[in-house]
Amino acid sequence: MAEVQTSDHGEGGKKNKQKKQHLRVDFTPMVDMNMLLITFFMFCTTLLKPQTMNLNMPSKENDEKTNQTKVRESTAITVILGAENTLYYYEGMPKEDGSDYKNPDFLKETTYTAEGLRAVLLKKNEGTYEAIQELKAQKEREEITDEVFREESKKVQDKAKEAKKAPTIMIKATELSTYKNLVDVLDEMLICNIGAYAIIDISDGDRYLLYEKTKYGEYLTEAQRAQANR
After folding, report:
1. What is the pLDDT, as a whole number, of residue 71?
2. Backbone angle region of 142, left / alpha / beta, with phi > 0 → left and psi within -120 to 50 → alpha
3. Judging by beta carbons within 10 Å of its beta carbon (0-12, 13-18, 19+), is residue 1 exposed, middle or buried?
4. What percentage of the chain's residues is helix, strand, coil (to nearest 5)?
5. Phi, psi (5° rounding) for residue 207?
6. For residues 41 and 54, what is the distance between their CA atoms, to the nearest angstrom?
7. N or C: less crowded end of the chain, CB within 10 Å?
8. Model pTM?
């Protein structure tokens, strides 16, 4: 509420008492403006939907498809995120006798660049990658809808799985890796059109393999370090 003071001069130069005039500001028209702003922000919020990424997380229960998993061991790739932005991987599954965990050459070092992990994944996903890229190009040209793209991409990946050509990527992060390292690896999964990948806990065998490769004792558990120091 605003106040305006006014004064009048009477006869003989005498001053009259000051008169206070109260002004009232009507904010009723602002209601329409507020409603328009609220509607505008609500409309914009619906357009800014966050992009989500589907992750295949391992189940703690017994897997009924264990036999199918063993069949695809030849296409399995284990990616291990190490310290100071280092990245390692090995192909296939380690031998049950544990000899591979003692062989530093079984673990290969790569990088987060296009010439590193991406090149490895593209080579393993050859054929499937090109087919899905063609579908992406058709979607960009608006020749197919998003729904058709997802359906056809799934068919391509399922076909590669049946032919035992699609790689299965197991991502294992150490305590010395960063969140950015994990995000970068997940980005490579999308870029290379990898259909089957999962984030799983790193095993003691993988820790020992990292130690044999790098001689960095921080990868080991306390029990493993005590044993290694004997």
Report:
1. 43
2. left
3. exposed
4. 50, 15, 35
5. -65, -45
6. 29
7. C
8. 0.68
